[in-house]
Amino acid sequence: MNIENNQIIAVDSVWTQIGCDLTEHIKPILTYSDFYWKQGRFKKERITYTKCMLYYFRKSNEYWMHTGFIPRVIRNLKENEIPYSFKTKIKPISFDKPHIEGITFRKDQDQILTTAIEQGRGVIVSATGTGKSILIRGLVGAFNQEKVLFLVHTKDLVQQMMEDMEGEVNSLGEWSGKVKNKARVMVATIQSFHRVVQDFVHYFDVVFVDEAHHAHDIEKTYGKTLSFLAAPAKFGLTATLPATEKGKMNLEALIGPVIANFSIQEAVSKGILAKPIIKIIKVPDVPGFSLFDEDTVPVPEDRKNDPDYKPKKYTTVYWNGLVTNTTRNMIIMDLAEELLQKNKTTLISVVNIEHGEVLCDVAEDYYDMEYGKDFVFINGSTPKDERIEIKKRFESKDLKTVIATTVWSEGINIKSLNCCIIASGGKGRIGVIQKIGRGLRKTATKNTVIIYDFQDTCHKYLRSQFAARYKIYKENGWLK
To answer: Is the separation of the CB atoms in 457 and 463 below 8 Å?
Structure first.
């Protein structure tokens, strides 16, 4: 494509061509630092490197970048008084004022919606419980003739979004699992849709990415899918941005810059969210307890015929220190029973299915708790209809205690939730915030949510994980 040396041409919503004279100014703007671990002879070594997201194609002597970077690049060129010209081939789309029949937006919601429409693309960071579904429905109301796609990562979120928009959208279709319904507005799981995305390159006018922090890598499923979608308008919604600079840059490349940020602290201060109160329980060390018993760790299916297989050290420590640690698990279920007796609804977060099963055994063997009546365990293999029924019982407080894997760590609305027990350990900021977020929704009778976490001291891996979580709690002022 012929292009003047100082031109920026947005070819579509994915790719933008850059004139040669601008490349030296743009390269620093699109360069980030990252690292990886290299196993040395005696220890791992951290290797740092830089990557530039301005791409040069030698064969055609052309420079290209992702269209999501346009606001960043143009802002920087203006600040540094670098002459340029900008053209776009992206077709404009019409829109109405964001609205939902019978609902008046809060001031913060109205401001976010106005900004989103004005910008036409970008990432909205809105704390869990602040009304993300309201923002989505409001934006859908603004695009009431255009073709719209919602990308989510679980069937539960498909179901929830379909329920939210039922009656508000004149043509609504689901694309997940065996269900394949093409419509003006489609809600799709990324797992199903990425297989057919090349059939929909130019079909949609607007794309929404729920839990948008998952679009943190151009080379993975979300990145490859979004790189095919030429929809003029793209929006991402999330409660937490990716933790790394690479993740933030990739998210901006694929969707656009952060255009709104409504934090938990701001929402709590304005009385929109319940305040999280963190209570720490120290797990006592057990004499003679071995963290390094590899025989207790299950062998993955694809390694069962490998006689040389040995679990990683961290896997062994996590398994013995958390998953099968009877002392720790009894503390968890003792607390769960106490909260049950106080008529509190409690969500217990785990990572491994085996950990959930162990907690179920502890509840039934050592405590007066009946499965199905007092508590249940939900994971990825739980049938869809059963998940929906469990959620309804939990919200109505007919069911008081739910043990759940990450299948319930994001996007699930549980207004009645009183307490969260973080049984899973971990240190990632996104995971911690998402687990806490399940209980932040405020009601007429609920101004706070109690979060129980565990100080594990039996190994440096677990101590460092707790220290990372503690730092997050302290920074946000959530410690009691």
So the answer is: yes
